[in-house]
Amino acid sequence: KQVKSIWTEKRFHTEKGQTAFNELFDVKVKLFQSPKSVETLRELLLMGAPKDATILDFFAGSATTAHAVMQLNAEDGGNRKFIMVQLPEETDEKSEAFKAGYKTIAEISKERIRRAGAKILEGECVEAWNKDVGFRVLKVDSSNMADVWYTPDETTQAGLLDTVDNIKPGRSGEDLLFQVLLDWGVDLTLPIERQTIQGKEVFFVDDNALVACFETGITEELVRELAARAPLRVVFRDTGFADDATKINVEQIFRQTSPDTDVKAI
Q1: Strand partners, 197
Q2: What does the radius of gyration of the chain's CA atoms come to, in whole angstroms?
Q3: N or C: which end of the chain has fewer CB within 10 A?
Q4: Which domain holds residue 82?
Q5: Structural domain tally of the chain?
Q6: Is residue 36 in some structural domain?
Q7: pTM
């Protein structure tokens, strides 16, 4: 197919993009000014994005790119993925978006993806499509690990108690999990299941590819149960064990029950 350099058809016009956006949000006012037409992005994808491509849009805006990716997948059964990057740029307090509750452009982006995905699922799609319209939202933040830089003469006996746990206060198990995924180079799009085992929250990434428990009070019984599942990797919180004996025995338990498991504590 020969690619045209000038697109004059009305389906590519910004007005079409605005109309589609307003219909999706069921509004007449402009929550977002001049969004691109889905057809424009769809045409670009047809030019150079095979069915297994990953499309990066570093200026997500109204997330038309994500909409187009999902739409094209529904049409041809593709498994294209999108990465949308958007600064948390604040909306003007006088804008229609702000009045509607969208305090940042990123909030509009996320809502567009949700609404577009739901609409696409309601429409016609090829049987081969996996109907995946889900997405994850990750935000740039500081490390979960506390910055500890003390010389001996700066450290007091009482202060030692504050440096036992090297994880910053207020960080959730999910926060720690995604840092581990990044550190280990694990695909962030893999399915994650959250289970409660012996009263503790345990994450299972891609079934048994990675098992993580960042709770405190972890007992040998829980460690043995996780080892029996023979995960490829397992990670705990360094200060999460019920006692020193459990912490010492973790690697031995896995060595006996699941010797191929990579064991790590953070």
Answers
A1: 200
A2: 24
A3: N
A4: 10-122
A5: 2
A6: yes
A7: 0.82
